[in-house]
Specification:
Layout (H helix, E strand, L loop, with lengths): L7 E6 L14 H16 L3 E6 L7 H6 L4 H25 L4 E5 L8 E2 L2 H9 L3 E5 L9 H11 L4 E6 L20 E3 H6 L7 H9 L4 E5 L5 H6 L6 E4 L3
Parallel strand pairs: 1-2, 1-6, 2-5, 3-4, 3-5, 6-8, 7-9
Antiparallel strand pairs: 8-9
The chain binds uridine-5'-diphosphate (UDP).
């Protein structure tokens, strides 16, 4: 049984979770596992939007640090997210889940452009909609893309599936005494610069009252548990 307050959710997956145990790129076996989790969420009756990052292939900031023009590097990052979206589409279709990819950077031969009303229709028909290329502009991230699509598709929550199981008051890798928040306010995340999503994405969720649920997608079955309100997670909402 899913959290009864959720009818439509946006699941944001960092690009790095598509790497599995590799150092770079896409591990099709791991993508297939992720697709099973997405299928289970959809089969539970939810409408599911997906946004996938590109950090497993290319990040604009990394390119800029090596002397590339930042905007140019960011467009390369956006293209990386389209590759990930196509990989996920393929894995979902192998499980019989109907999907559509909509890219904010138009690429007519491989996917649809982002058209909100069309995306609505896809969801009504039980398709998973994968939004690629973030917001379609450089100097943004796919977290901002996820917050934007969650707002325009009127999602009940933004689920951020990543490699860590929530938000901590300090880096748990460096500080064994780090404490995980069960719930934390948008304002505290922004004021304390807690590492969840970039500030623009958090602010957009705050302004549209979209709860952000941070959880580890690396553990099998965790998405389903989180949707039932049970898994280990941190919820970012108005009152922390
Ligand atoms: N990007 C961008 N605009 C967007 C979304 C993404 O310029 O709206 C670029 C940016 O260079 C970013 C890269 O695409 O570094 C990959 O996305 P992101 O870093 O958000 O992926 P993640 O960390 O979630 O894997």
């Amino acid at each position: 049984m899913t959290n009864p307050s959720y009818k439509r959710v946006l699941l944001k997956l960092s690009g790095e979770v598509l790497m599995g145990d590799q150092q770079f790129g896409i591990d099709p076996k791991f993508v297939a596992e992720l697709a099973k989790e997405v299928k289970a969420a959809k089969d539970s009756g939810l409408e599911v939007c997906l946004v996938i990052g590109g950090g497993n292939i290319f990040r604009g900031m990394a390119g800029a640090a090596q002397g590339m023009d930042r905007a140019q590097a960011d467009y390369m990052g956006m293209l990386a997210t389209v590759m990930n979206a196509l990989a996920m589409q393929s894995a979902l279709e192998q499980l019989g889940v109907h999907t559509r990819v909509q890219s904010a950077v138009q690429m007519d031969t491989v996917c649809e452009p982002v058209i909100r009303r069309r995306a609505e229709r896809h969801l009504e028909k039980g398709r998973v909609v994968i939004f690629a290329a973030g917001v379609g502009s450089p100097y943004f991230t796919t977290d901002s893309g996820a917050a934007l699509r969650a707002a325009e598709m009127k999602c009940d929550a933004l689920l951020k599936g990543t490699s860590v199981d929530g938000i901590y008051d300090s880096d748990p890798k460096k500080n064994p005494a780090a404490k995980r928040y069960q719930s934390v306010s948008y304002d505290k995340v922004l004021a304390d610069n807690l590492k969840v999503m970039d500030a623009a994405a958090v602010a957009l969720c705050r302004d549209n009252a979209i709860p952000i649920v941070v959880f580890s997608i690396r553990e099998k079955g965790n998405l389903a548990r989180v949707l039932e309100g049970q898994g280990v997670q941190t919820i970012v909402q108005k009152e922390g």
